[in-house]
Amino acid sequence: LVSREKKPTDTVVNVGDVSVGNGQSQFVMGPCSVESQAQVDTVAKSVKEQGVNILRGGAFKPRTSPYDFQGLGEEGLKILRNSGDRYGLKVVSEITNPKDIEVGSQYLDIIQIGARNMQNFDLLKEAGKVNKPILLKRGLAATINEFMNAAEYIVSQGNSDLILCERGIRTYETATRNTLDITAVPVLKQETHLPVMVDVTHSTGRRDLLLPAAKAALAVGADGVMAEVHPDPAVALSDSQQQMDIPTFEYFMEQLKQPNVTAHNI
Ligand code: PEP
Ligand code: MN
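Above: inputs. Below: predicted complex with manganese (II) ion.
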């Protein structure tokens, strides 16, 4: 169902009045983790000022170590929803447990399924049953074919509002946190009819590479870019190395809004 052969035309995922996959670049910006209402509001205000439509923030955090901050859970979803409503932004957050898909769909405009859960088939099936757009991330060591099969799990349950997200894969390279598979974008655009985004934060793990990676993503035809923004990354409860502070984020967006960057859309 996700293959271009089955449906030659591009799927546009409508998130209320925001469209993903219609040829205009969409940005998903916000903190790694929801930490407090004030923290998310600060970011949301800047995100809105930059013309970004979609706010992110993790509430259920899949952390490598059980001793790291695990997220605020449902309270985090409420905070994110409040900020979204206050600043007129769509909100996206990760759901990790199939039984939380329902609660996620109460608070969120888009439900994210993270890299570590790309092959959590029960979660994919639940995501396929709700009437809510899904943002599916590529697994840490998933081939494009496995990624497309994960997408098929969701769409085959009836939910075709699906956005794919390349977020870097694990290779022998250590200069970056993961290796951004930039050609996955045109491959996925050729093989499927779904919108494709690129997460530059988790793929690079390096603040100095966010802008070049985002430019590359848009140049190869990505429908959008995700990146993390925090009012004070140094004290962030997760991913403090690669989140942008607000001035850096403003510069990032100004650069990406240059007309030559999105030349593929012209
Ligand atoms: C995230 O976007 O918050 C996240 C944890 O990303 P990933 O699943 O790609 O690691
Ligand atoms: Mn993060």
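The first strand starts at residue 13 and ends at 15.
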